[in-house]
Each structure stands twice: as structure tokens, then as C-alpha cells.
């Protein structure tokens, strides 16, 4: 069954859908992205229009399809050790925790395919020791990227920013048909917990954290959604804990309960 092009009205409806489902504001002019990512789903259900697919989603007759649509429409761009200043800070915090003989809990709140939480785990394992009392939680709204994160198998180019010593210590180099890829070593993989979570809804009981990474995700949220999400996350941050956002982002007009200690780095009093 041939699929017609997505209409302006259908695109507007999908903008509303992804906002309601995930709090994500999809920019105008992304018709090609929406139609490109969803065309196979229309073919799967033998639907001839994007409006019919939206009706299927809204009918809730296929609950798993709702998650599939969210997975396909959320963009995931990441690599290891993105924004080195944040990892330098994490190193200092880990050293301090080690000196004081206490644990450290870190939350990667939009963990995508896992590069960020594994980068965090490498620093903690290196500074505090692989068997020390540290925890890393990675959460994301996309079950597809979480499945990929749990596998811990990546193209080698994603590791271009990774320290060579970490590459040797924590990663296995792909051979033969897996050449050009790397696999996060099993003992490190087992130290990172991944969980499906929508930041735009009440949070499950996940406890308090010393450091929360919420990087390069606020750009997709409206101002009101940003305020709600940040308030929700800061409630999980311990007093004296650090909150890290993307270097192109700011908490101005969003939240004034944390103190800026450096660009993109905030501390809870």
C-alpha cells in the first residue's frame, strides 16, 4: 500500500503527540524526519496515511506501538567523554569520596545509548576502585536506546575522546566480523544500571544522588517543561550535590535554587 506524504496537519498532530508523550518540543520543518522514521511503521500496519497511524496510537489498541513511536521520534546523539570539564569535576568528586571513605551515586538522566553512563563508570572505577561503593544509574525514555546501552557494543569512532588508558582497560576490541567496533568490558557493564524513565512524569523511587547529569536534552523542552523537569530532578539531588547540564544550556529563568559554580555546572546548597 503506497504511503502518501505527511500533510502539514498530520505533522502538527505529531508535534502535539511527542509533546504530550515526552514533553519534547519538535521544531517546525521536521516533516522529512517524521515521515522517514515512521514510514516503516505505516507499512507494518498497512496504513496509507500518517493520520491513520496517529489514530492507531491514540486508540491505545497497540500499547507497545506508543513506545515504538516515541523511540523513533526522539533523537539520540552522543559519544564517550563529551564535555571533558564535567569528567574532570567528577574525578575530583570521586577522589574526595574516596578520601572520606564514602560512596558516590551518579545519575545520567538522559542516558541515550549508554556512552555517558559508561564514561562516568570508567572515572569512578579508576579513581575509587572497581569494587568501591559507587553506583551509576542511566535512564532514558527510549527503550530502543536502552537495549543498545545494555549491550555496550559501539562503533570505534564513538571513543575518539576516550583516554587511551581507559580504552585498553575497560573495552574489548572487535576482531574479524566485529572489526571497527568495541565492547564495554563485562565487569564494568554490570556496575551500570539502566532503567526506562520519562522525565516528564512523576519519578519512581530511585533515591538521592551526589551528581546528576542532564545534558543536551533541555533543548527539546518548552520553558514550562524545563522548569518542571529540573525541579523534579533537583528533588533527587543531595544537599551539596552537583547538577550538570549541556554547555549550550543554562538554568536562567528555569531554577534559582542551585548555585552556578562554572558554566553548565551547578551546586545544591
Describe it.
By secondary structure, the chain is an alpha/beta fold. The chain has 10 helices and 10 strands. It has 2 domains: 66 residues, Chemotaxis Receptor Methyltransferase Cher, domain 1 (Orthogonal Bundle), CATH 1.10.155.10; 184 residues, Vaccinia Virus protein VP39 (Rossmann fold, 3-Layer(aba) Sandwich), CATH 3.40.50. The chain has a 7-stranded mixed sheet, covered by helices on one side. Helix 5 runs parallel beside helix 6. The protein is globular and about 65 Å long.
Provide keyphrases for this structure:
10 helices, 3-stranded antiparallel β-sheet, alpha/beta, about 270 residues, Chemotaxis Receptor Methyltransferase Cher, domain 1, 2 domains, Rossmann fold, 7-stranded mixed β-sheet
Provide a compact summary of the structure.
By secondary structure, the chain is α/β, with parallel strands linked by helices.
> Could you give a short account of the major beta sheet?
7 strands, mixed
Q: Can you tell me the CATH class of the largest domain?
A: Alpha Beta
Q: What is the CATH superfamily label of the largest domain?
A: Vaccinia Virus protein VP39
Distance between the termini: 59 Å
| Proportion in β-strands | 15-25%
**What do the pLDDT scores average to?**
94
Helix/strand order, N-terminal first: HHHHHEHEHEHEEHEEHEEE
CATH architecture of the largest domain: 3-Layer(aba) Sandwich
Name the overall outline.
globular
Helix-strand makeup class? alpha/beta
Question: What is the share of helical residues?
Answer: 40-55%
| Number of domain modules | 2
How are the strands ordered across the major sheet?
6-2-1-7-8-10-9
Q: What is the total tally of β strands?
A: 10
- In CATH, the topology of the largest domain is named Rossmann fold
Rg estimate, integer Å: 20 Å
Q: Which oligomeric state applies?
A: single chain
Counted by DSSP, the helix tally is 10
pLDDT < 50 stretches: none
Amino acid at each position: 500500500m503506497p504511503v502518501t506524504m505527511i500533510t502539514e496537519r498530520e505533522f502538527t498532530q505529531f508535534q502535539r503527540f511527542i509533546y504530550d508523550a515526552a514533553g519534547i518540543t519538535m521544531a517546525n520543518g521536521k516533516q522529512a524526519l517524521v515521515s522517514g522514521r515512521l514510514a516503516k511503521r505505516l507499512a507494518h500496519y498497512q496504513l496509507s496515511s500518517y493520520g491513520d497511524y496517529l489514530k492507531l496510537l491514540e486508540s491505545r489498541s497497540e500499547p507497545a506501538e506508543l513506545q515504538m513511536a516515541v523511540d523513533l521520534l526522539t533523537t539520540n546523539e552522543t559519544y564517550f567523554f563529551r564535555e571533558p570539564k564535567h569528567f574532570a569535576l567528577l574525578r575530583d568528586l570521586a577522589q574526595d569520596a574516596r578520601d572520606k571513605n564514602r560512596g558516590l551515586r551518579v545519575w545520567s538522566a538522559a542516558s541515550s545509548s549508554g556512552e555517558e553512563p559508561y564514561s562516568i563508570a570508567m572515572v569512578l572505577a579508576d579513581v575509587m576502585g572497581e569494587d568501591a561503593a559507587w553506583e551509576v544509574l542511566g535512564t532514558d525514555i527510549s527503550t530502543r536506546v536502552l537495549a543498545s546501552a545494555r549491550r555496550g557494543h559501539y562503533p570505534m569512532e564513538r571513543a575518539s575522546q576516550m583516554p587511551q588508558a581507559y580504552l585498553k582497560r575497560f573495552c574489548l576490541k572487535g576482531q574479524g566480523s566485529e572489526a571497527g567496533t568495541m565492547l564495554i568490558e563485562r565487569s564494568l557493564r554490570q556496575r551500570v544500571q539502566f532503567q526506562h524513565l520519562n522525565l516528564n512524569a512523576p519519578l519512581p523511587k530511585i533515591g538521592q544522588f551526589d551528581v546528576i547529569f542532564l545534558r543536551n536534552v533541555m533543548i527539546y523542552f518548552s520553558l514550562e517543561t524545563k522548569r518542571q523537569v529540573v525541579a523534579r530532578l533537583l528533588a533527587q539531588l543531595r544537599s551539596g550535590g552537583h547538577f550538570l547540564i549541556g554547555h549550550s544550556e543554562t538554568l536562567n529563568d528555569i531554577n534559582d535554587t542551585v548555585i552556578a559554580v562554572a558554566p553548565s555546572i551547578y551546586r545544591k546548597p
